[in-house]
C-alpha cells in the first residue's frame, strides 16, 4: 500500500512539475519577444530623448572610423565621422515607422475590403477579389522596386509603395475569416433578428477578425522591415544622410573588409527586431487559435 501511495505521490509531483514548466514556457514565449521589442523600440524612440546621443548626421570627419567603445562613441563612427550608435537608434525610428505605417494602412484598407467583399458577396465580391488577384499575380517585390523608383526615394514614398502591395494580403485574410464567421450561429441569429448589414459588419464581424489581422500584421512587420532595408540598401528607400538600417548596411558594405562592424551592428539589430516580431506573431496566432 505504501508503495502505491509513493508511486501516486511521485506521479503527482511529476505532473505538477511539468505543469509549472509548461506555464513558464508559455510565459517566456510571450515575454521574450515583447521584452525584446520594448528594449528596441524604447531605445530607438526614448534613448535619444532622455540620454546623451550625438546627432546622427553632420559628424566630424577627423573622427572617422573610430572603433567601438571610443570616448563619446559607444559603437564607434562611420567614414563620415557620424556616431554609429546614434545612427542605429535614429535609423530604427525610420524602419519601425515604415513597418507600422505600412501594416496599419494594409490592415485598414485591405481588412475593410476583404470583410465587405465577403459580407456583401455577389458581384461586389467577384469584382474586388479579381482586382486583388491581379495585384497578387504580379511579382510584388519587382513592382515595389518599380514603384519606389518612379516615386523617388523618401520615407513617405516607401510607405505607400509597400502599403499598396500589402493590401491584397490583408484583404484575403479578412475575407477568409469573414466567410467562416458567416456560418456561425450568432451571425444567423443576428440576420434573423433584422440587424442591418453594416451593423453586423462593425458589431459582429470586425471584433472577431481583428485578432487574426493583428497577428498577420505582427508577422508582416518583420517582412516589411526587411523589404524596407532592401530598398534602402538599393538606394530606393530612405535616402542618405538620413539613417535607416538598410542604408547603413549599404554604406557599410562599401568598406566591408576594413570596417566590417559598420555592417554587423545594424544587421544584428535588424535581425533581432524581425525575430521578435515573428516570435510575437506566432505566439499570438497560436494562442488566439485556441492551442
From TrEMBL:
InterPro entries: BP-dependent_transpt_permease, MetI-like, MetI-like_sf. Its main location: membrane. It is a multi-pass membrane protein. Gene3D superfamilies: MetI-like. It is found in: Cell membrane. The chain crosses the membrane at residues 30-50, 96-120, 132-152, 158-177, 213-238, 258-281. The keyword Membrane applies. Belongs to the binding-protein-dependent transport system permease family. GO terms for biological process: transmembrane transport. The keyword Nucleotide-binding does not apply. Keywords: Cell membrane, Membrane, Transmembrane, Transmembrane helix, Transport. Residues 92-281 form the ABC transmembrane type-1 domain. This is ABC-type dipeptide/oligopeptide/nickel transport system, permease component. It comes from Saccharomonospora marina XMU15. GO terms for cellular component: plasma membrane.
Amino acid at each position: 500500500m505504501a508503495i502505491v501511495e509513493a508511486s501516486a505521490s511521485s506521479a503527482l509531483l511529476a505532473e505538477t512539475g511539468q505543469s509549472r514548466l509548461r506555464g513558464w514556457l508559455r510565459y517566456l514565449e510571450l515575454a521574450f519577444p515583447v521584452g525584446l521589442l520594448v528594449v528596441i523600440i524604447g531605445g530607438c524612440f526614448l534613448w535619444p530623448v532622455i540620454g546623451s546621443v550625438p546627432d546622427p548626421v553632420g559628424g566630424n570627419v577627423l573622427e572617422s572610423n573610430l572603433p567601438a567603445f571610443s570616448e563619446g562613441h559607444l559603437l564607434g563612427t562611420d567614414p563620415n565621422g557620424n556616431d554609429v550608435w546614434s545612427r542605429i537608434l535614429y535609423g530604427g525610428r525610420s524602419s519601425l515607422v515604415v513597418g507600422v505605417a505600412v501594416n496599419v494602412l494594409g490592415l485598414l484598407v485591405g481588412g475593410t475590403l476583404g470583410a465587405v467583399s465577403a459580407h456583401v458577396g455577389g458581384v461586389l465580391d467577384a469584382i474586388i477579389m479579381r482586382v486583388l488577384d491581379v495585384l497578387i499575380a504580379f511579382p510584388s517585390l519587382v513592382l515595389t522596386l518599380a514603384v519606389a523608383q518612379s516615386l523617388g526615394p523618401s520615407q513617405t514614398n516607401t510607405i505607400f509603395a509597400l502599403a499598396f502591395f500589402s493590401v491584397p494580403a490583408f484583404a484575403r485574410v479578412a475575407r477568409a475569416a469573414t466567410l467562416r464567421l458567416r456560418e456561425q450561429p450568432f451571425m444567423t441569429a443576428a440576420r434573423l433578428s433584422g440587424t442591418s448589414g453594416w451593423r453586423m459588419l462593425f458589431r459582429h464581424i470586425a471584433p472577431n477578425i481583428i485578432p487574426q489581422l493583428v497577428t498577420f500584421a505582427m508577422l508582416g512587420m518583420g517582412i516589411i522591415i526587411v523589404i524596407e532595408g532592401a530598398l534602402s540598401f538599393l538606394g530606393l528607400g530612405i535616402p542618405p544622410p538620413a539613417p535607416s538600417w538598410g542604408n547603413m548596411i549599404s554604406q557599410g558594405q562599401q568598406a566591408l573588409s576594413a570596417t566590417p562592424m559598420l555592417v554587423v551592428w545594424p544587421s544584428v539589430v535588424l535581425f533581432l527586431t524581425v525575430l521578435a516580431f515573428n516570435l510575437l506573431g506566432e505566439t499570438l496566432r497560436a494562442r488566439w487559435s485556441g492551442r
